[in-house]
Structure formats: structure tokens, C-alpha cells
Design goal:
The chain has 684 residues and is α+β, with helices and mostly antiparallel strands. 26% of the residues lie in helices and 32% in strands.
């Protein structure tokens, strides 16, 4: 079936409900929203004090109860694994499995308890446009006073401080990532987590003495820096990339930075590079000695590749190029610093650069990264290719960003500025990408044939077709359906086809609905106070639907079908049952469909109109209704790629109940059966 893409709005509606800007309620000078007093005190005021109101996004979530239940659930799972249930034995009774389970459980529980995740008491986010093309975003993760003893609260330092690394970053820096990292705190945590497995012994107990020397020398900061040079290009040979032509990119250089307490790491590295005879001779630049690292073999890449290492101030640096090393040495001397660059200052406007970590990227880095991604991601196929397209679309503007990570007495704060709204279009693109990936994976799994013997995703094959004489096609029955054939010119006109369907199914007068009428009905409110008793046969219940479809050839062979999909229904104006569904497309994404069921004038049957691909394309009419059963005839015009339009007919029998409807039927093309179908609609 050929479909045209449509705009999908529920995602944006959900985002508005969750992240919408507060637009009502009194607000105090300290940025907290006033309302009735809460019966249970939360972290709202503490979190709100770190956020910006009146912007694009303002969100808060109290997490204490949810995390408490998570902890209880974890303990329950551990107990179940160790002791088993009354109905069955414990996994620990299996001599092969028991050591594995014991080892995993011995790590999982203390790892979670000591991580600090369970101490999170609230999370808040905000986004505010501080000027045109400059957005201020904040996220705060809170813990109550007196808590915050877990790893996540102090492994990244104690409190914000001047970022000394900015005095080393040259003004042509395209990307910078740098953070505090308390290695001793991490090893202490690991000792606690793995201590029981190791009989209470420290993981450092058997480590060589050099390891402790390295840890003592490490100054609890590490980072990465990258520069780009558009005037000195880097050339990647085409044969390395499975390309006919060489690829030319902005020249890149990068450096790894480690804060150190002394010269121990430099001396160790020098011994290694000098083959045990001390560090090789270096070159002096601005009081900094730069030591070259010889390459064992030349690389087939045209770029500035001259690895080296040096120590400048309190940092040991490994650099891919001596040119970058010299620029960093000059920056340390006060010449050509990123912190003094006008573009960086404009991007960091209004931010306090005292922090425990920083992430910076300019638009050039974003563009360069997309070019690199294209080398591999551009070869993706199917749903993954669509995900990459969504991701690429979200970054094509070229994003500039400064983000700061700060450890505070009652939590962790991430704040920054960006040339785009990071909690707007980007998050929507990310959610959309995940949705496409999941839908595509389900479709690929269905098409794989793995479930051929299981009758599709819904479980074993549906009974009834092979033994049900009503659906035995061997007798050449056409179920009394007229054989509808296309006009002589093989060109089907949708409007004329619908008129023809009305005539064939004897649908007249007010039973007929136009496209405009259907769309108007679809906007109506759900009102079930006055449902005609004739609809009792359908057992209207709930508002949400889940649909599972199984397809078969006329002789009963299983065919690939769609994964489970979902929808909603409501009753409008005392006479219309309205269905909305999101039908998964084979190529990924969904088709949004609208179906309206209406009781005819003399209340003897129900007429259905099907609306999809932005058009009214099919009609149904009940042949008979009794108790919980309905028989249907239908006509529908179908469009397929690379094929002329054609008319499909259905003969369907429905068995309805309060919780679910079960349908089985046969599809005909030009009067000839082409497939059988069973499907179950679950109502909730």
C-alpha cells in the first residue's frame, strides 16, 4: 500500500504536558512556584532555586518514592534468586549456576547501595532563551542534606573551582572535555563492592607498587582537547574508506591532559620512550620541553602527525602533533588562549567558569564530527539509516555549546549555553530516532521468519482456518461478493470508486460521510452517556486499543505480518464510534488511520468509513448482527508502489466481548481470494 508521510503530533503534545513552561500560579522572587502546601515535603524548592522559570522548559520530578521501591525490588530479586519460591527451587541449588549468581549478586547489591543513586531525591530541568540564538539550559540532581555519601556525589570533586585547563587550551580549540576524577574515591568504592568476593581484600592489595605510584602522582583531573585547521587539510585515502576518491577534511590534532602532583608520570613515560636510558632529548618552547614520540611506520594519511609528550604547569600532555604542543605552551604563557577568544566569550556569556568539569564544542567541531560519522553511518540501511537521518537533521545547524558540571553541597548541577535549544528540537529528534529504531527492529524481526512457526508475534497460530468450513476456499465460493473490476482504462478514480462502493453496499443518505465530516467527527469529545443499545453487540469498553494481526495464504500458510500496534477509541455525538490507530509501515514509521462506525437510520446495521493516507479509501457494512457476533462486507481502494491501483474486498466475522474483539476474514482482489486474516483487538 502506498502511503504519504504525515506530521505526527502526539510526541509534541506529550512533551508539552511533561515539560511545558509554567504559565499559571503565583511565583515568588526566589523562582519557586507557590501553591497549596504539600502533605509530604519534597525537594521542589531546593531544585527550583537552581532553575530558570519563564522559559521553553521547566520540569521537576521527585524521585524518593520511586527509588525506594527500586531498592526494595532489587532486594526482592536477590532473595528470590537465593531462596527460590514455594513452587520451585532456587537457582542457587544448581551447582553450575550458583557460583555465577552468587558472584553477580555479591556485586550488584553493594554497587547500587554505594553508588548514591538511591539517594537522589529530585531532578529538575529548565531551558531559557537569554538572547537570539543563545539558550541557557540547566539540570540539577538533588540529594537531601545529611545524605549524599554515595560515589556519584563526590567522585567528580568536592566543590567548583577555577578551571586551570582553560589556560592551556589554544584559541583554535574546536572541542574540549575535562573533568575532576577522584581515582582514590573510585578504588575505595570498588573495594567496598568487590570486598566480599575477594574475602575482604582490597583490589589494590596485589597490584604492583608502580600502580600505587601512578595513582599517587595523578592529580584527579583528566581531559581531552581537539583543534581543527581549515587551512591545512587532512587527506584520508579512498581505499581505506571503500571510496573511489580520497576524502579531504579539516586538519585535526588532539591532546590528552592529565593533572599531576609531581614528575613521576613524566619520568615513567620517559623511561619507556628512552628504552630504559631516560627520556629522549626534547625541544624547548616557551620554557616547556616537548619530547617527540617516533612512529614505528609511516601512515598512509596526509596530516600533521608528530606525536609528543610534555609537562606544562600542573598537567602532563600527550599530543598528536608538535604544532598543537607548541600552541598549548604558548597559551600557558598567556598567548592565544581559548578563554580570551571572542567567540568563546560570547558563547559562555553569563556563566561562572568555576566548575568541576567542562564540555565545549564549536560549530566547526559539529560539522567535522558529522563528516566522520558519514563514513560509516552513511552506509547504514533500513531503520538504522532513518535513525541516522534524524540524528543528522538535528545537528545540521552546527551547534556551539559550553556546558559546566558543578558539585554542590546538596547535589549536582549541569548548566550551559548553546546556540540551539538542547531540550527542544534535539531531544525530540532523539526520541524520534529511538522510536524509528524500535519500530524498524520489530519489523525486521517479523520479516526474519523466526516466528513463522509461532503464528506471528501474538503466540501460536490462530485456530479455526483449517477446520472452519466457513473459511474453506476449496469450494470456490466467493461468499456472495460481487466481482469488482477496475475500469477498462485501468485508471481508478478514488472519488468515483467510493461512490461505487456506496452503491454496491447499499449505503445511502446520511450513512455516507465525506472527508470533511469524518475529520469534524474525529474532533468530538468522548461521551458515553447516550450509547444506542444497538451498539451493545460491539461491547464498547475502555479507551485504549492494542491490535495483533496474523496473515495466511488462502491455503493456510503463515505470512509475515505487522508487529503489535496501538490505538484509541471514543464515542461521539451519541452515534459515532471513532477509532484512531498507528499502523506500522514496512519501511519504518507508522500510518495514522481514522475509522468511524455509525448506526444507520433504521438501526438495522452499522456502517464503517476508513480514512488513511489523508483520504477516505474504504467503507464497510454489517450484513447481520446478533448477540456478540457481527458479519461484515467491505470495499477498499489500494495503492501500491510500482503497481496500478486496485480494489480489495473483505468478508469478515467478528466475535466481540467487553475485553477484546476477535475477527477473522478473507481478502479478495477482483473477486479472487488473496489472503486470510485473523486479528484480535484488546480493549483497556
Amino acid at each position: 500500500m502506498k502511503h504519504k508521510p504525515e506530521a505526527i503530533t502526539p510526541l509534541f503534545c506529550a512533551a508539552l504536558l511533561i515539560f511545558g513552561t509554567p504559565g499559571s500560579g503565583a511565583q515568588s522572587a526566589d523562582n519557586t512556584l507557590k501553591g497549596p502546601p504539600a502533605a509530604v515535603k519534597s525537594s521542589f524548592e531546593a531544585v527550583a532555586a537552581r532553575l530558570d522559570p519563564n522559559g521553553h522548559l521547566y520540569a521537576y520530578l521527585s524521585t524518593e518514592q520511586a527509588l525506594a521501591r527500586l531498592g526494595e525490588g532489587l532486594e526482592g530479586l536477590i532473595t528470590l534468586a537465593k531462596t527460590g519460591t514455594e513452587a520451585g527451587s532456587s537457582l542457587m541449588d544448581n551447582p553450575f549456576v550458583a557460583p555465577i549468581i552468587e558472584g553477580v549478586l555479591g556485586v550488584v547489591e553493594p554497587a547500587y547501595r554505594q553508588s548514591g543513586i538511591g539517594e537522589i531525591s529530585g531532578v529538575g530541568m529548565s531551558s531559557l532563551a537569554i538572547e537570539e540564538n543563545l539558550w541557557r539550559s540547566k539540570m540539577f540532581v538533588h540529594h537531601q542534606p545529611g545524605k549524599g555519601s554515595g560515589l556519584i556525589w563526590d567522585m567528580f570533586g568536592k566543590q567548583p573551582h577555577t578551571l586551570e585547563v582553560l589556560s592551556l587550551a589554544p584559541d583554535n580549540t574546536a572541542a574540549l572535555m575535562h573533568s575532576d576524577l577522584d581515582v582514590k574515591r573510585v578504588t575505595d568504592w570498588a573495594d567496598t563492592v568487590f570486598g566480599e568476593m575477594l574475602g575482604g581484600e582490597s583490589i589494590m592489595a596485589n597490584a604492583p607498587p608502580q600502580v600505587q605510584d601512578i595513582l599517587d602522582s595523578f592529580g584527579n583531573e583528566a581531559g581531552f582537547l581537539m583543534t581543527l585547521d581549515s587551512e591545512n587539510k587532512m587527506t584520508l585515502p579512498g581505499f581505506m574508506l571503500d571510496r573511489e576518491e580520497d576524502l579531504e577534511l579539516d586538519g585535526v590534532a588532539f591532546a590528552l591532559l592529565l593533572r599531576v602532583n609531581d614528575d613521576t608520570l613524566m619520568e615513567m613515560l620517559g623511561e619507556v620512550m628512552g628504552g630504559g636510558f631516560g627520556a629522549p632529548e626534547g625541544t624547548k618552547v616557551g620554557g616547556v620541553t616537548i619530547h617527540s614520540i617516533p612512529l614505528p611506520i609511516p601512515l598512509p594519511i596526509k596530516m600533521d602527525l608528530s606525536p609528543c609528550y610534555f609537562q606544562v604547569g600542573n598537567y602532563m600532555v600527550l599530543s598528536s602533533a608538535e604544532s598543537l604542543a607548541k600552541r598549548m605552551a604558548e597559551a600557558h604563557g598567556g598567548k592565544g588562549r581559548l578563554a580570551d577568544d571572542a567567540n568563546f566569550k560570547a558563547l559562555a556569556k553569563g556563566l561562572s567558569l568555576k566548575a568541576n568539569g567542562i564540555y565545549y564544542a564549536n560549530p566547526q567541531a559539529t560539522e567535522w564530527g558529522m563528516q566522520i560519522n558519514e563514513l560509516s553511518m552513511g552506509k547504514l540501511e533500513g531503520g538504522l539509516a532513518k535513525v541516522y537521518e534524524i540524528y543528522e537533521e538535528s545537528l545540521k545547524e552546527g551547534i556551539g555549546m559550553v556546558s559546566l558540571f558543578k558539585v554542590e553541597k546538596d547535589g549536582l548541577l549541569i548548566e550551559g549555553n548553546s546556540t540551539v535549544n538542547p531540550y527542544g528540537g534535539n531531544i525530540v529528534h532523539s526520541i524520534a530516532g529511538v522510536g524509528v529504531a524500535v519500530a524498524s527492529s520489530l519489523n525486521d524481526l517479523q520479516q526474519s521468519g523466526l516466528f513463522d512457526d509461532l503464528g506471528g508475534f501474538g503466540g501460536p497460530p490462530e485456530p479455526g482456518f483449517d477446520d472452519d468450513s466457513d473459511f474453506n476456499l476449496d469450494d470456490d465460493s466467493d461468499f456472495g461478493l460481487p466481482r469488482v473490476t477496475p475500469p477498462d482504462d485501468d485508471e481508478l478514480d478514488l472519488e468515483s470508486a467510493i461512490e461505487g462502493f456506496y452503491e454496491e453496499l447499499d449505503i445511502s443518505g446520511e450513512e455516507r460521510l465525506t472527508k470533511e465530516q469524518m475529520l469534524e467527527i474525529a474532533q468530538g469529545e468522548d461521551d458515553r452517556s447516550n450509547i444506542p443499545k444497538e451498539f451493545d453487540v460491539l461491547h464498547i469498553h475502555g479507551t485504549k486499543l492494542s491490535i495483533n494481526i496474523s496473515l495466511f495464504t488462502p491455503d493456510g500458510q503463515k505470512l509475515p505480518g505487522p508487529p503489535e500496534f496501538y490505538g484509541t477509541h471514543k464515542f461521539v455525538d451519541g452515534k459515532y464510534l471513532v477509532h484512531h490507530t498507528n499502523f506500522p509501515k514496512q519501511e519504518g514509521g507508522v500510518d495514522r488511520t481514522l475509522t468511524i462506525l455509525a448506526l444507520n437510520l433504521n438501526k438495522t446495521r452499522i456502517v464503517i468509513h476508513d480514512f488513511f493516507d489523508n483520504e477516505l479509501r474504504g467503507v464497510w457494512a454489517s450484513k447481520s448482527m446478533k448477540d456478540n457476533k457481527v458479519e461484515w462486507e467491505s470495499r477498499m481502494m489500494i495503492e501500491q508502489p510500482n503497481e496500478e491501483s486496485f480494489i480489495m474486498s473483505f468478508d469478515v466475522e467478528s466475535n466481540c466481548s467487553r475485553e477484546k474483539d476477535e475477527h477473522k476474514g478473507v481478502a479478495f482482489r477482483d473477486g479472487a481470494p488473496i489472503y486470510k486474516r485473523t486479528y484480535t483487538v484488546t480493549k483497556s
